[in-house]
Amino acid sequence: MAGNLSDVIKKLEQQRTAIENALSALRELDGPGFEPAAAPARRGRPPKRKGGMTPEGRKRLSEALRARWAAKRAGSAAKPAAAAKSAAAPKPAKRKGGITAAGRKKLSDALKARWAAKRAATRKK
């Protein structure tokens, strides 16, 4: 194991010297007139903004909500007088569709006849 460990140490030292040589060569290139390559342009979607709403946006929203609720409160102050007028003269209830008694009877008779015919057809088979 000791021999194996010394081999690993030698290889790492060789790599270190190679890296140091490469770094010194690059430092020599980084003199006057050397321009590093520009970073590649990012592709895809722009990064998402974190932190939610901006302070300006939050302020605009709160002002709009205050104005909305103030208008609603001002409108509700005028409503009791209107509610008193509507309570004095109730409107007749509107019919919301439905079926008349005559129509219900006609439908019932038609369904009874249909089921009678179906039972008679079943009995014949």
Distance between the termini: 95 Å
- Following the backbone from N to C, one meets helices and strands in this order, namely HHH
**How is the biggest beta sheet arranged?**
none
Regions with little confidence, pLDDT below 50 for 5+ residues: none
Helix amount: 55-70%
Shape: elongated
The average pLDDT value, as a whole number, equals: 82
Strand content: under 5%
Number of strands: 0
Helix/strand class: mainly alpha
Radius of gyration: 44 Å
- How many helices does DSSP assign? 3
What attributes characterize this protein structure?
single chain; 125 residues; mainly alpha; elongated
Structural commentary:
By secondary structure, this protein is mainly alpha-helical. The chain contains 3 helices and no strands. The longest helix has 34 residues, at 55-88.
Summarize the structure.
This protein is mainly alpha-helical and 125 residues long.
